[in-house]
Every structure is written in structure tokens, then in C-alpha cells.
Amino acid sequence: MNIKENLSNRIKRVKPSVTNDSNRQAKELIKNGIHVFNLSNGDISLPTPEIAKNAAIEAIENDDTKYTLASGKEELRKAIADQYNRKYDLDYKYQNVLVGSGTKNVLFTLMGVLCNHDDEIIVPTPCWPSYFEQIKLFGATPKIIECGIENNFKLTAKLLSKNITTRTKAVILNSPNNPSGSIYSKEELAELAKVLEKHDDIFIIFDDVYSEIASPRSSFYNIVCLSKNIQNRTIIAGGISKNYGMTGWRIGWLIGPEEIISASSSFQSHSLGSAVTISQDAAISLLNHVDESPFNEIFSERRKTMVEELRKIKELTFIEPQGACYIFPSIKKLVGKKYDGVILKNSKQFCELALKYGHISVIPGEACGLEGYLRLSFGSLTSAQIKENMFQLKQFVENFR
Ligand SMILES: Cc1ncc(COP(=O)(O)O)c(C=O)c1O
């Protein structure tokens, strides 16, 4: 049997995660004793807060290790709703919250609940690559809107308005953004909301997984705070991975209208089952006691170092990120130049050359839906590591002729 040919058409349409793949290639070189400057890793090298660790240990000791309801422990759903209500002056109940195994997992559930064949989901790019593939897995079409550097990589009301069709089911907004680090201001979100208010049947998916990683912290604004009309059709997707440095605990959530949450719970009852109980217990203690990320300042310092070091590489132009743990420089000055006799055509080729000759792992802008750029991650690098290693990228780039 030709096994590959017999796989589903669904999986044949899907590209594997570029971030996972780049990371795997970098780790392979490292295993062979080669020093690789890894700027492709989306992980966070910060310790899990003690309060979460202690709650998990207690859960194990108390044998709180059985299934929970598919939507998550009621206590955790309430802790999440309460935290949003405290932080943004909202009125969510636990019935508005679904807990899953990370933000990636709950977004997958949400796409399963929303997407029909022929639906379009508006995806402003650059963006987190998994949105495209999750939408495609459920037979819908990602309607890509390229938001260039001239718009600070953000969707504008004009672009949104131009791209809405009768097939539009939802629009995804991610703030702070992976990979650009851009943050939507209240005014910018209000402009987008004005357009959406004319289209009652379009959902808003608001991915705020980096909500606490913003400089200043107050620059983050949640779209649901704009009006009841907007809140009633927004589904927030968030989690503890980035804000609290707890990527491996795998806790994420959806917050939205009860009908969506109940449908998502039904979906999850046949897929995930329930999120890991020990992790749920850790998240309850954490979210009931810690509203602000303990790492905001560390991220700001890493971002500042990254910006300072990148400024030394004249061939890579960029705008300063305001949040998250990425920077998205342009390679347009290098395209058409030669490296070791090879003419540079695009970001994918840049990444291949960078890994092969410079031992630097980076993600091509193409994977994030915007060609001509690179995604550099610094979530897993200390400021000292950034300072020590950025010369490697500088040297590599300076070898283009
Ligand atoms: C924008 C965005 N959304 C969601 C996720 C998934 O996060 P989680 O670890 O909670 O699954 C990521 C992870 O990199 C991300 O960058």
C-alpha cells in the first residue's frame, strides 16, 4: 500500500509547523556538537512561579489526578473569569470559560466549532503560522490580509472593510503580536470595531496569549472592553504559557458567549477529554493570586537588548516591537545579493543559508504569511546570551555581496 497516498486529503493540505521544524534542525546540529544561535525557539526560559509549582505538588500528593469535566474544573473556569473581570472590569461568569490544553489546543477546538466549508476566516499577516493550518484542517479558507511595515504590521479599518465578503465567518486579531511585537491601541481597535458593527454575523477571535508582555504594560487593550456588542461576539483565546513562563503545563482557555463555550465543550469531550488535572490545580492557585506577569521587566530588558544589537546590522531594517518576545526585521536590502555564489531570493532561502553557513536558526517571514522578513525570537534567550551571540548574525549578513 502507498501509505502516504492513503492519508486523508485534510492532512495532505496541511504544512507541518515551521517553528517546530526549525527548532528540530537546530537541535540536531547542537547534538552534533555545533554551536547554534537559536532564534527560532518560541519557548520562554523563565521559571514557573512557586505558587503554581506548590499547588501541583499538593495535587499529586492529594491524588487529585483524575479526569475533570471536558470544559475544565469549575474552580479554574471561575478563577479565569474573575481574573479578566478584575483586570478589565468585565462581567464574565464561569459558564463563559472553557479550559483546554494550551491556547493552541483551544484555538483548534474553536476552529472546529466555527468553520464550515466555504467559510473564510480573515487572518491579518504577519501572524502565528498555526492559524492558517488550523483553519484549513476544518475545510475553511484563511483569507490573508498582508499588513506591511507601513501599517506597523497591523490591520486597518480600510483593509478590513475591503476584505469582508458574504463568506466571512470571523476575523482573528492577535495583540501583542507574534511575530511583529505590535500592539493594537484602544483607538485602532475602535476603528476596526466600527467596521465590524456593520456586520453582525462576524465573530472576532482575540488571541491575547501575550497580554502581559507589553511595554509599557498599560499599552495592551482588550477589544472586549470596547462595547457589549463587541464583547458578545468576541472569543478570547489565552493561556498561561507566555505570561507566566509555563509553556509545558499546557493550560489555555476560551472566553466568550455561552453558546460557543458549550459547543466547544462538546467538541472537547470527544477530542481532548480534559486538560491535565495537576496543571489545572496549578493554574487555579496562580490565577487567584497573581494577576501581573512576574516577567514583564525581564522581557522588556531582553527586547531592548535585541533592538540595540539589531541596530548594529545595517542591512536588516525593522520597527521596534512593543510587546511579546519577537522582532521582525526586513531582508529586502539583501534580496538579489549573493552569499557564497547563491543569489538570495526569499526569506526561506535566507533561513536555509543562515543555518548551514552561519549556524543561526531563524523563522522565514513567509511562514508567518509575509514574505521579505525574518522572525527572531528572544523568549528563550537572556540579555547576556543575546549580547554574546548577535555578532554571529551580523557576520553572516555582512558576507552577502
Ligand atoms: C499568537 C500565539 N497564539 C497561541 C500560541 C499557543 O500558545 P500555547 O502554548 O498556550 O498553546 C502561541 C504560541 O507560540 C502564539 O504565539
TrEMBL record:
Please give one Pfam family short name.
Answer: Aminotran_1_2
Indicate the segments forming the Aminotransferase class I/classII large domain, all copies.
35-388
Question: Which cofactors is this protein said to need?
Answer: pyridoxal 5'-phosphate
Molecular function per GO: pyridoxal phosphate binding; transaminase activity
| Keywords noted in UniProt | Aminotransferase, Pyridoxal phosphate, Transferase
Q: Give GO BP annotations, semicolon-separated.
A: amino acid metabolic process
Q: Which domain of life is it from?
A: Bacteria
EC number(s) given by UniProt: 2.6.1.-
Q: Which InterPro entries match?
A: Aminotransferase_I/II_large, AspAT/PAT-like, NHTrfase_class1_PyrdxlP-BS, PyrdxlP-dep_Trfase, PyrdxlP-dep_Trfase_major, PyrdxlP-dep_Trfase_small
Record family assignment: Belongs to the class-I pyridoxal-phosphate-dependent aminotransferase family.
Q: Specify the protein name.
A: Aminotransferase
